[in-house]
Amino acid sequence: GQSPFAIGRGMQFERSLRKDGYARVLQLLRERMGFAVEGTTVVYLRTGYPRNRQGLEQRAAETKRLVEGVIEGSTDAPNLLDGAVLTGEIAGNKAYFEADAVAARFDGPIHAGEVKSFPVVDGRPEPDKLGAALDQVAVYLLLMRRLIAELGGDPDSTVSTTAMLIAPRNVGLTPTLETQQVSSRVRRIDSLLSKP
């Protein structure tokens, strides 16, 4: 239901975030999250795979492999995954979820984030759109917690419940990063997805 203008703006904004080795994103992570971003490894998982269910399965397997490297402290593990695919079960069926930014780990817990093209005006995104974006990130965090547990890690210490939202500041395309605690959303979604 989005207009072609909104879709085009969203694609333009996402492309701008990937320029120069994700320089703008890494700057936001340093300034807003306090991450040390020198020597950063970013993995882009949106190309090189078929655009079908098989491609999603392959990306999910690669996401799992990369996250395992993160929790094991591998020196070549990524700091940031763009287009990670996480899996979950809904009503007995396997579902795939594509996260905009996940496994942003810099000597601390794994975070997840969502990129949106709606403006953040004076530090305040539109409440309905913000709520929907935070629910998306809460799903990613829940699925990441489950993946960490499957890999033998401790979800409580390894996965943050702070959601990141990257969106344009005001009407331009300069990105800003907002954070919000979503632990209650994670619990609510866990309860919903756990129902038979």
Describe the secondary structure blueprint for this structure.
Layout: H1 4-33, E1 42-44, H2 53-72, E2 80-90, E3 93-102, E4 110-115, E5 120-121, E6 124-125, H3 127-150, H4 155-158, E7 159-168, E8 175-181, H5 183-194
Parallel strand pairs: 1-2, 4-7
Antiparallel strand pairs: 2-3, 3-4, 5-6, 7-8
Helix pairs in contact: 3-5
Count the helices. How many?
5
> Order of strands across the widest beta sheet?
1-2-3-4-7-8
The counted number of beta strands is: 8
On the 0 to 100 scale, the average pLDDT is 90
CA-based shape: globular
**How far is it from the N-terminal to the C-terminal residue, by CA?**
31 Å
H and E string:
HEHEEEEEHHEEH
**% residues in beta strands:** 25-35%
* Structural class designation: alpha/beta
> Quick one: biggest sheet?
6 strands, mixed
Unreliable stretches (pLDDT < 50, length at least 5) are none
Proportion of residues in helical segments: 40-55%
Cα Rg: 16 Å
